[in-house]
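Researcher: Let's try something more involved. This one mixes different molecule types, so please make sure each is placed in the same coordinate frame as the others.
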Amino acid sequence: MRIGVITYPGTLDDRDAQRAIRLAGGTPVPLWHADDDLKKVDAVVLPGGFSYGDYLRCGAIAAKAPATKEVIKKAQQGLPVLGICNGFQVLVESHLLPGGLIRNEHQHFICRDQKLRVENNQTAWTNLFEKGEEIVIPLKNGEGGYIATEDTIKMLEEENRVVFRYLELNPNGSMNDIAGLTNERGNVVGLMPHPEHAVEPGFGPDTAVATRSGIDGLKFFQSALKALVNS
Amino acid sequence: MFNNKNQPSGVDTVENAKSEPDKDQPWKELGLKQDEYESIKEILGRRPTSSELAMYSVMWSEHCSYKSSKIYLRQFGEKVTPDMKKHLMVGMGENAGVVDIGEGLAVTFKVESHNHPSYIEPFQGAATGVGGIVRDILSMGARPVAVMDQLRFGAPQDPDTARVVHGVVDGISFYGNCLGLPNIGGETVFDKVYQGNPLVNALSIGSLKHEDLKLAKATNAGDLVILFGARTGADGIGGVSVLASETFGDEGPTKRPAVQVGDPFAEKVLIECCLELFQAGVVAGIQDLGGAGISCATSELASNGNMGMRVQLKNVLLRDESLTPEEILMSESQERMCAIVPKKHLKDFEKIVNKWEVEYSVLGEVIDEDRLYIDWGHEEIVNVPPRTVAHDGPVYDRPVEYPKYQDALNADSSSKLKRAENETEAAAQLMELISSPNHADKSWITNQYDKYVMGNTALAMPDDGGMIRISEETGLGVALATDANGKYCYLDPYEGARQALAEAYRNVAVTGAAPRAVTNCLNFGSPENPEVMWQFKQATAGLADACQELGIPVTGGNVSFYNQTGETAIYPTPVVGVLGVIDDVARRVPSGWQDDGNNIYLLGTTYDELDGSAWAKDLHNHLGGRPPKVDLQKEKELASLLYGATQQGLIEAAHDVSEGGLGIAILEASLRFNVGARIWLTELMERDGVDLTAALFSESQSRVIVSVGREDDVKFQALCEARGVPVLRIGVTDKENQAVDIQGVAKLELAAIRGAWAGVLPGLY
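Model: All components are placed in one shared frame. Result:
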């Protein structure tokens, strides 16, 4: 299965996302922002970073890139898309997901091992998790505070579209502790924390068992592969 | 500063310099001394043009020319034996040293200061400090893979400290995170001696294949000189000559416009663009633009290659069209690089920079003549031998004087300080120390840095050293640690510098890596003060001797003088970075224990050494006496034991015993994974003949605590015995009891320790 990873100018975690796809058993395909050819990939990851230096608004310029326009089109037809951190911001700016992401309420960039609860395991990127499963993956952002109108929040909750919720500590002031969302169809998922940084023993978060041994992020990518095989 | 209104053409040309030999020139305002100005005239056989004057003034500044330090820095090269050189691919003098780590791979690393800009404008000062060192690494042909930062702030409660702390941490966080480089470690120290002159040192490391090494050299006549990256603006003009080479007065920051402004996005794009250019083989030589901007890049590239250059300055792309040629030559605008490109590769070069939407302009070409010509339109404004600008600057043997205060300082030992009268008091002192800003949790700072990006971070804060995987195929990696104890160096700069090296060496050894090379950033007061020069002389000798004794070479570094407020210099603070190599990062050892029931050993001997300690300074506000003795043979034996034990997988955790002593080390190792310990100190006190205060707080060197699984006990003890390293079991890890139970002293609950330790920095800032 071929999963594309888009690189925008200022993207940082593209190589990490490619590695995660490889470790999950997929074939990573590098995609370039200026190229509207998605190279017939079966799914797309929009990785973390500071695309276009976060100028204007995080993700706003990347949302207009030729590659993104193509992703929007295909996502509406069911292509599995995962937006991580800056990728989540791009999804929101592209209106594939509702709401907005603003400066953390404490005004600082924060990097920490974040506990999350999986609220929805019916999406293309979470089907290998148990509902209610608690996982730990790194979080690192300056503008991760999720906001939306009251109606939108109500709709997201009622339709079970909140996929991940922060546990123990809300690191950025997100409404309803929302860490990640999906669209109606469940093929598009965006979240602030970074699953691609918790895929390889020795380089992930600390666990109760050993230093930096957490690999809870791997299931995101394995889930996508499973969803693709099933479809 | 440059008044052109008397000249119709607006610029001071070589012709003018000949026809108006007696024109008044602002050499003094540009930071030159009378005799320096005279020697420029002698070199040129005429007065310099204002552009030439601008170039010489920045290139002959203390910051660029190392004129006061050069005669002492030589010994880092002279004291290197052939054996020490065997892994050294590029030594001192280049943008950064390059070290062979095996498997056809190499790393390049260097630490640099950005102290003065960071006091004036903490955010941009610190941000561009990171940007500058990363471009140095990139210039060697390497992909930057990590950064670290060494920070010294003023008194924690001083209101101005908050300004500096917030700005500096935000600046490093903003720039480093946006570049996508993991921040894997560093130091933060508070002391009022740094109040008016904080230290912001930034280290970067990059990796490359042997064959990808690049040098800052122009060697072929006809090759093009291309400036690319950001446009040139008015920021940072005179940064090195005016800011970095002067002392701050008591009136505080006034020189804000001379601080550069950084754009990490532009730098990130520039990094990727450069790496693609290197890969395509279209670049023959490369130099980053930092201090002294175009003046430095053109003269150094030409001088390094023993060639000349002809440059059209009007071709420089500007942000502000009103800049004068002098300003363009001196500008320190960030995110710029200068490449030497063979003409036949120009098309390929253009294709790659266009892909990354990076602007470029061809400034001129390399010529086979010992001359750097710079034209402004049709007028010649610079005509100099490049070497005289880049390398043959003035060299000073400054007066050196043994400080008047030194004997009294050394005589004022800590022996008169009141020691804990009983166990309860000792425990209270330990709690007080762990909750003092210098020993409290630094995660308020380090959590603002991305340590995960790139996916190769094997160790980072709060472990003793940072570790990065270089080869994903084999797990080959490197560890890095930096240290400097300004208090020890103040008491004895020679011993203090040796100690800084010993501690960084030890911090690399505890991670399981084998120390291999050294970098340094020497932060001192004014070289015009003979007592400061004595400190510098002693510290450089101490460091060079110690490198020789440990058998690891200095690969490069940086000197920062004029770190003082009025007449008061900072403590001499020679930051020493040690790089180690580990064949598989999977073997790395963290700084805290995690398993239950493992034995805790103290390696090394404890002496009654409290002078200059955290116990004396942070609890009794006393600094005097003699710093702890450094025995480098012991350090070597200890490092080799740790390496051997790690290779056999015998050690679960290892933590350096340094500032704050054994007591602090035990608490830190317990806090790391929130796993407690039962500790007994009586045997140690009997064996080493020390009291409880010394057992807990002495800062004797060459000591490490380790935890070892019971099944490996016999093997481990045998190994210690074989290597002659003193070993004593002082406790056992305890997962059930959420406490550090120092038997007969106190049972300290982990929650209480964490509460006292974690809240300090968030409370202050």
